Amino acid sequence: MSTKSIFAPQKSANILPVNGVQLSVISCNLKSDSKPDLMLVNMSEGTAVAGLFTQSATTAAPVDWCKKILNQSDARALIVHAGNANACTGKNGTELVKETTKFVATLLDCHKNQVYMAGTGIIGQIIPAYQIINKIDELFNNLTDDAFELASNCIMTTDTYSKGISKIAKFGEQNVIISGIAKGSGMIAPDMATMLCFIFTDAKINSEIIQKLLNRANVKTFANINVDSDTSTNDTILLFATGKIDLEQPITSENDLQLEDFEKKLTEVMLYLALQIVKDGEGISKFITVNCSGAKDENDARAIALSIAESPLVKTAMAGNSPNWGRIIMAIGKAKRDINKKKLKVQFGPYVMAINGGPVPTVDMDAVKKYLTCKEIYIFVDVGIGQRSSTVWTCDLTHAYIDINADYKS
Amino acid sequence: MSTKSIFAPQKSANILPVNGVQLSVISCNLKSDSKPDLMLVNMSEGTAVAGLFTQSATTAAPVDWCKKILNQSDARALIVHAGNANACTGKNGTELVKETTKFVATLLDCHKNQVYMAGTGIIGQIIPAYQIINKIDELFNNLTDDAFELASNCIMTTDTYSKGISKIAKFGEQNVIISGIAKGSGMIAPDMATMLCFIFTDAKINSEIIQKLLNRANVKTFANINVDSDTSTNDTILLFATGKIDLEQPITSENDLQLEDFEKKLTEVMLYLALQIVKDGEGISKFITVNCSGAKDENDARAIALSIAESPLVKTAMAGNSPNWGRIIMAIGKAKRDINKKKLKVQFGPYVMAINGGPVPTVDMDAVKKYLTCKEIYIFVDVGIGQRSSTVWTCDLTHAYIDINADYKS
């Protein structure tokens, strides 16, 4: 495994238990180091569920399964394997999902359409069904409400540290908990999610409404991150609401004023986890925030910011502390959105490099170069045509990215 | 400068003079090493011209100029500077083009709308007009029909070798010459051209017809190459036909049967130059041909092949001789085109890695790994839904790419 990212938090987050959620982890030898790689989550009856999935055309078998069962009924379980994606595994892959969810359903005395599944890891290797199914009894017998940290470790692949967080949201006088875990490091491009993320809350909110809240939070968080512009076959975000905390006034709409703090905290949980994924981006040496303003609409602003965040020439320049802002002009251009070339502005942190579509001759290049040696860099661009803006987050492209990916899998 | 690409031709091509075309080169100190960086081409009266340009929204000043004058009249001159792109240079950049073309027009006794201009190099640095204009007299006095090789060297930037070729095309008993030069190594993505390429012929064919021939040849050549998915502000292909060789039967349509050999040879010239650009891709250690078959239409086939060619995870796997074909599945998926997941096939050279949407268990992995150490790799995919196919060309992503781009420009 690679050295831990320099952006890893100093200490692990304390992830709070959620009423109605029990977890356990075990090794089924999908990871080469015998670390836990199989996770079972059991949720109480009546758990609402919302999901978002990769838009890839080569979705993995567990993604196909979740998309099929979402909206059919409440959720009772989630089973996740790490180290193998169960993608491009033909009939075997579909069978594995069928057998596993059936087995879990029998144990929990529920319907298989209440059992969600996700996977992450190598694409194109078949997992023999027994390898997972043999372990489910033991997982079931060890369920506990206190295993979130173990779970966040279990789902890691090329991640160099585990990712989890809790927030407490208020509904009037009542507190509800939102706890989330995520994994992701490479194959990260913002097309929905590009990673695994599981969020649990004990608030009582129905599936239809939490789906809308999830969609709204997603476009401000996971949709705006990028590590390497590659999109996974397995991206999955699932949000489960066990309903154990019954709210004084039932929530009947996603715009219910009671939801204000909950939506804010949910977005904070998702933003934290999304940024943790970038901060653990394969080979990262710099964390980069790109803000595009002056765009016609938010879509254009996001497309331009992402074009900058995705550009290997911008990312290598950042790795090399190079004030080559011309590459940012290039990346703005290749987004092919409406801009005013004569009003373009480019800024590295506080330093304006270009204004009115041309260079600033008086910029103090020594100061700029010093700024670019910082671990956290801000790139601001203004495209001079409107009032809308968007922020995205990315990392630089370093030798370590190549080392990791030239060697991943024998 | 970087070491010469391992794919550089053993010896420089012999680029044949073209009737009605004279060239000269000089240094105007845009390149740091005082090598020639300014080129003038003079063409005889009545020269037809066709062009293709970057679709970037942040086009450089010379590109804006060429787009404006194309189709206005015949061409008499081309002036090209290397080492500075004259992009994002505001009013100064536009002025430079205006002053330079006017000066050249006066010397050649033609209209400024007959003077084409192109640039390549650093974005966002202003070139003082005198730096170019002071050299034009000398360029003019040294025009010769025998300077194609000097010209192909003059337009290089991060290229590690010069790129040029000639072909002779037959119109019945008559021979015409097609000579082309090109430059390009980084910031190469297939959105029209992504580089500079100038092609000259002495055939008598009008502008309207050579434009159509150029478009048709482009979609089989420059449109299908990729180095790093970044698109330049300065991409330009210009095709000039001096008309010095009068054809027995005038050409009245792009589908005239007389054009058969000419179009074939033009496409060969463009394919050779396009592949030379990939073979000089920044940091290249492997030349990779990606063929997608079984697609619904050619657009889908091309989009899928390009998605594979652009993927940093595929490119780093190829750099590391890694048979991780799962990344090819990922890249097929992220193109989001119509495919049949159950019929997907992936092949490295002769080795079928996946068939019917799942892995081939019997593949001889030692043989595959040995194959992947070759300098030229073929990736074949079949998406199982139709009859159309497309081929694109790319290179791997290596440490050398990062070295070159973390350091380019102080």
Characteristics of this structure?
410 residues; globular; Ubiquitin-like (UB roll); 28% strand; 15 strands; L-amino peptidase D-ALA esterase/amidase
Concise synopsis of the structure shown:
Two copies of one chain form a homodimer. The first copy, chain A, has 410 residues and is α+β, with helices and mostly antiparallel strands.
- Assembly of the depicted chains: homodimer
CATH hierarchy, class of the largest domain in chain A: Alpha Beta
Taken together, the total number of domains of chain A comes to 2
- Strand-residue proportion of chain A: 25-35%
- Give the N-terminus to C-terminus distance of chain A in angstroms: 14 Å
> What structural category characterises the helix and strand content of chain A?
alpha+beta
SSE ordering of chain A: EEHEHEHHHEEEHEEHEHHHEEEHEEH
Q: What characterizes the major β-sheet of chain A?
A: 8 strands, mixed
The chain pair forming the largest interface, with residue counts per chain, is: A-B, 74 and 74 residues
CATH superfamily of the largest domain in chain A: L-amino peptidase D-ALA esterase/amidase
**How many helical stretches of chain A?**
12
Number of strands of chain A: 15
Mean pLDDT of chain A: 89
Report the CATH architecture of the largest domain in chain A: 4-Layer Sandwich
Principal-axes shape call of chain A: globular
Helix content of chain A: 25-40%
